[in-house]
Design a protein that fits this description.
This protein is an alpha/beta fold. The chain folds into three domains: 8-144, Methylthiotransferase, N-terminal domain (Rossmann fold, 3-Layer(aba) Sandwich), CATH 3.40.50; 149-394, tm_1862 like domain (pyruvate-formate lyase- activating enzyme), CATH 3.80.30; 400-484. The chain has helices at 17-32, 56-68, 70-75, 86-91, 94-98, 114-124, 140-146, 182-185, 194-206, 233-241, 261-269, 286-292, 298-311, 330-343, 360-364, 371-394, 410-414, and strands at 8-13, 36-37, 46-51, 80-85, 104-106, 128-130, 164-168, 170-171, 190-191, 211-215, 223-226, 229-232, 248-252, 276-278, 316-323, 348-352, 400-408, 429-435, 441-447, 454-462, 466-475, 480-483. The strands form six sheets. A six-stranded parallel β-sheet has the order 2-1-3-4-5-6, sandwiched between helices. The structure holds 5'-deoxyadenosine and iron/sulfur cluster. Residues 173, 175-177, 180, 182-183, 217-218, 255 line the site of iron/sulfur cluster (SF4).
Length: 488
């Protein structure tokens, strides 16, 4: 069947893993309606931007992209342009004011309506907006109901990798850190019923998925009561652990205060669960943490870190930091440096503070750290983290790890597209990449047949972000393993 011209979809996704999952699901729903994806925005009759509001920069990029579409829209007035996700919920009608050629504004809680909204907008040639209630606009129940989790049955063809999938276990956030827009853009914290999650994981594993990453803004705050029983994240992990075909389970992002003993014991006792925890500290300075309303002191973070080390000693921990938050003195910043030195995170994501309208920090605290100071602090913290990551990676040289092979490495992808029709496509040696159970990236040579498998790799070298290695082949007869060139 040829696809009608008006069913070509271009979608651009920015932001976090939650957005990647949302896009996957929106695309799957639209494909069911006969849409076909195109990478060429000029060839598309429907253009969607799935947006992020966490920092101003991400929003600028979208407004610039929208600006560039103004003329193409004039040439083809039937084109439907949609802004979906966090920025849609945050900016609402403002998007039509700043970009009057936009047809659709659809918040994170209305993604299920997108196919209907596109059809209606095309038919009636008028703009549509579908968003949730603001967090102060109604009762908690009403606001929660206006944010619908979008988790339809999934289309395996739409995943970037057939072996890995995201699974949403909760939406929203109630922590209200003073810098953060997420409680507004994603609404109140709501955990999905375990039955739905477990069914989704089973289905994914049946389709060949080896690794699921459970998603939540504060994933370890997961709580759901079903038939009188309270389910915590540890219960969910235990219940999905024996799913046939499933090899690995990860979960992000953790909130330090909700890191409980039962969860760490589940990580310790369940072999398929990654020995990896992303637990953002955000700052190493108590005063700043208080101003951020993070709900812990660095001493309490230290206790939490100690608990991780006591229960799961081989666990890798990563963090996020914000530099240049309101009132961050040089001394406060040095405490973040100390924090990276003390905890030796596997890696850290470091961000310059970006004031976000609608947040407590933006309302009450001046953004008083100059941009060049923020930039310098960002570089210093990153340099320190890279130094530590490289030192810790270097200690792993000579060791062997079980890797879940994810696909061609970034370098390989940059080298250009391989010819899938070539006779040796599956067997030619390329650079592959995968991750250890501690979430460390490993690059090594191998053939495409290894993608999706668990493979043992011997580490021979490293960079701050990547371990480099060679595949270990088992000599079955002797029961020992040795380093051999990869069989092609
Ligand atoms: N400015 C800079 N970084 C932010 N983050 C969240 N809000 C802001 C902001 N206003 C960072 C936090 C969070 C990560 C996803 O983004 O570090 O953990
Ligand atoms: Fe934002 Fe804080 Fe919620 Fe994380 S815990 S999403 S930083 S408000």
């Amino acid at each position: 069947m040829t696809t009608p011209h008006n069913h070509r979809l271009f979608i651009e996704t920015v932001g976090c893993q939650m957005n990647m999952l949302d896009s996957e699901l929106v695309v799957a729903a639209l494909r069911k309606q006969g849409f076909e994806l195109t990478a060429d925005v000029d060839a598309a009759d429907t253009v969607l931007f799935n947006t992020c509001s966490v920092r101003e920069h991400a929003e600028h990029k979208i407004y610039s992209a929208l600006g560039r579409l103004k003329h193409s829209k004039k040439r083809r007035p039937q084109q439907v342009i949609g802004v979906i996700g966090c920025m849609a919920q945050k900016d609402q009608e403002l998007i039509f004011k700043r970009a009057p050629h936009v047809d659709l504004v659809v918040g994170t809680g209305q993604l299920a309506q997108i196919p209907d909204l596109i059809a209606a907008s095309r038919e009636k040639r008028e703009s549509r907006i579908a968003i949730s209630l603001d967090r102060t606009e109604a009762t908690r129940r009403e606001i929660s109901d206006s944010f619908q989790s979008f988790d339809p049955l999934r289309d395996p063809e739409m995943r970037p990798s057939p072996y890995q999938a995201f699974v949403r276990i909760m939406i929203g956030c109630d922590k209200f850190c003073t810098y953060c827009v997420v409680p507004m853009t994603r609404g109140p914290e709501q955990s999905r019923p375990p039955k739905h999650i477990l069914q989704e994981v089973r289905q994914l594993a049946n389709e060949g998925v080896k690794e699921v990453t459970l998603l939540g803004q504060t994933v370890n705050s997961y709580k759901h009561t079903e038939d009188g029983r309270l389910w915590r994240l540890s219960d969910l992990l235990a219940a999905m652990h024996d799913t046939p075909g499933l090899e690995r389970i990860k979960f992000v992002t953790n909130y330090p205060r909700d890191m409980t003993r039962d969860l760490l014991e589940a990580v310790r006792d369940l072999p398929k669960v990654a020995r990896y925890l992303h637990v953002p500290a955000q700052s190493g300075c108590d005063e700043i943490l208080k101003r951020m309303k993070r709900g812990y002191t660095i001493g309490q973070y230290r206790d939490m870190f100690g608990l991780i080390q006591e229960i799961v000693p081989d666990c890798a921990v990563s963090s996020d930091f914000i530099v240049g938050f309101c009132g961050e003195s040089e001394e406060s910043f040095q405490k973040s440096m100390d924090c990276v030195r003390e905890f030796r995170f596997k890696n850290s994501f470091i961000f310059k503070y970006s004031p976000r309208p609608g947040t407590k920090a933006d309302d009450n605290l001046p953004d008083d750290i100059p941009e060049d100071v923020k930039r310098r602090r960002n570089n210093e913290l990153l340099d320190l983290q890279n130094e530590i990551s490289e030192e810790d990676n270097a200690r792993l040289i000579g060791r062997e790890f079980e890797i879940l092979v994810e696909g061609a490495s970034k370098n390989e992808q940059k080298r250009g597209s391989a010819d899938e029709a070539a006779a040796d496509f599956q067997t030619a040696k390329i650079q592959l990449s995968g991750r250890t159970r501690c979430d460390r990236i490993v690059a090594f040579e191998g053939n495409r047949r290894l993608i999706g498998s668990l493979t043992r790799v011997h580490v021979t070298d490293c960079t701050p972000t990547t371990l480099l290695g060679m595949v270990v082949t088992q000599e079955v007869q002797h029961g020992s393993s040795s380093l051999l060139p990869i069989l092609t």
